[in-house]
Amino acid sequence: MDPDASDEMTDHLVDFFDRIAPSYDSWAGGQHERVAARLVDVASPQKGEHVLDVGTGTGLVAHIIAPRVSPGSVIGIDLSEQMLAIARSKMSADRRSTTNKTVQFLGMAAEQLVFKPETFELVTMGEALAYLSDPNDALVEAHRVLRPGGRLAVSVQRRSLSTRAQDLFFQGLAPLARRHSLSLPRYSSERARFGEPDVLPQLLKGAGFDVTRMTEMVTGGRTRDAHEWTDLMAGAGPLPHTLIRALGPRYRTELEADVESAMESLGDPDDAFRYHHSYLIAVARKR
Ligand SMILES: C[S@@+](CC[C@H](N)C(=O)[O-])C[C@H]1O[C@@H](n2cnc3c(N)ncnc32)[C@H](O)[C@@H]1O
Fold it and tell me: Residue 17: CB within 6 Å of ligand 1?
């Protein structure tokens, strides 16, 4: 990606996260928090450790870690001020609380960390890797700021386990954008494979890490109808969000009618409106 296109993509992404910040934690019945809790369990933070949470968003991972490492520390970094505002709003009103002394949220890019080398025992990246401007640079930065033998814990969406209904819906988005003359920046499709068990370990290895543990988390459900489906999918990423929110009421009704017939075209009523949220979670040690 050329530098201008990369800046445009980052702005578009930060805009997306700024806009969805108030509904991020409640999306899909609290899905992000469940993934964050699993990531923390697998990362197994210890008392006294110093932790960096990259792409912290609303601070889900950081806030779960804080009481576990206290009197250590957790620093959450992100580029979206609205996400960070929510992360900070979850801090206790009591300034003397132990958690407040443990956790801190800063505006910073994952690719340009201001920290000295070998500062942290653990770096976490919850659902962030595939969104970063330069995932490889961010991994190299994580490696630099980790102490020798330090751990990196990552969760990434595993898109290949999406349902037929999701595949069909997402395939329809690009033609829909063209029909409405919307040209939206997108990352290359290789990022959709970051959560595959044969891809993530290679990415981490290339940045100087050895994977010590890998596990999967798969959840799913069904929406009741096309309206609920479209609302849910609008929170799934910048492309569906921008597109669905850009449609006026008439086109939104039209889209829902299209979704309805796409679901019928699947043949099996059990497949209609079914979604999976699948994640690969890996812990890797700094070589
Ligand atoms: C899907 S959210 C993940 C939030 C949280 N870690 C969680 O587990 O739910 C991805 C976050 O990465 C942030 N982000 C995207 N690009 C970034 C970058 N280059 N540097 C730092 N944060 C970035 C976004 O603003 C967003 O808050």
Answer: yes
Residue with tokens 């499709």: 189
Give DSSP secondary structure letters for 197-211. TTTHHHHHHHTTEEE
For ligand 1, is residue 123 a contact (CB within 6 Å)?
Answer: no
Does the pLDDT of residue 259 top 70, yes or no? yes
Q: Are 100 and 71 in contact (CB under 8 A)?
A: no
CB contact set of 250 (below 8 Å; sequence gap of 6+): none
Q: Quickly list H helices, 109-248.
A: 135-145, 164-171, 173-179, 200-206, 226-234, 238-246
Q: Which two tokens stand for residue 251?
A: 């086109």
pLDDT bracket for residue 25 (50, 70, 90): very high
- Comparing CA positions, the residue from 130, 29, 254, 58 lying closest to residue 244 is 254
What is the 164 CA–ligand 1 centroid distance (Å)?
27
The residue whose CB lies within 8 Å of the most ligand 1 atoms, and thus the one to mutate among 51, 83, 103, 157, is: 83
Element (H, E) at 103: strand 103-107
pLDDT surpasses 80 at 92: no
Domain boundaries defined on the chain: 3-161+186-221+277-286
Distance CA 77, CA 249 (A): 37
Nearest Cα residue to atom 7 of ligand 1: 126
- Does this model's pTM top 0.70? yes
The whole-chain average pLDDT of the chain stands at: 94
CATH of 3-161+186-221+277-286, one of 3.40.50.2000, 3.40.50.150, 3.60.21.10, 3.40.50.300: 3.40.50.150
pLDDT digits (tens, 9 = 90+) for 150-200: 999 999 999 999 999 999 999 998 888 888 888 777 888 899 999 999 999
State mean pLDDT over 49-54.
98
